[in-house]
């Protein structure tokens, strides 16, 4: 009986020690999770507010689309946006439902604005140009149009580089005749890596990379979308924040 009692006591003490060790481990894991959540929250808070130094890039602006809801352009200007690029058309038939309103209200607030066309690899250049010309008016006070070049899950086509460059040149010629000024091209990193558009199309470039200057074009960027996570009181969700390269600077 005595031996059994001793063994039972040892088992009880061992179980208690294991429970205590597990409890300590769980507390440490919980503390680590809390710290990770705090760090993630701080990172998101910082990302939503970070914009490049105005001493380096004095001219800054936003990218806006229908996802930003009813934009309060006075607040956008007060946040430091001197210009805006506004989503306009998409492929051969898409139109951003807020485009016309955003263009009008941006001008009324004193924010110079330009239109963005999202180019589709699945549709003819002439059809896309007709869509752009139908919905984007020619105005002397508008910024040059931007052709947004990126892959789209809705479009599986991957034309040859020669065909893409030929179609893109046709599209640019038609919309530039309508607007009366040259456009910008804005290829994403993966798109540029595959098609090397900036080597084949002689246009001013708008490149994209969050928080760090982009270096993937064939020549220096003129405009940089530096943060796609900025939150402003005048718009729903996040906006893209852009900077212009200072004149004469080739960094």
Automatic annotation (TrEMBL):
UniProt keywords, alphabetically: Membrane, Transmembrane, Transmembrane helix
PROSITE patterns associated with the record: GLYCOSYL_HYDROL_F25_2
Pfam families (alphabetical): Glyco_hydro_25
Residues spanning the membrane: 29-48
Protein's GO biological process: carbohydrate catabolic process; cell wall macromolecule catabolic process; peptidoglycan catabolic process
GO terms for MF: lysozyme activity
Signal peptide: none
Family the UniProt entry places it in: Belongs to the glycosyl hydrolase 25 family.
Name of the featured protein: Lysozyme
Species assigned in the record: Sphingopyxis italica
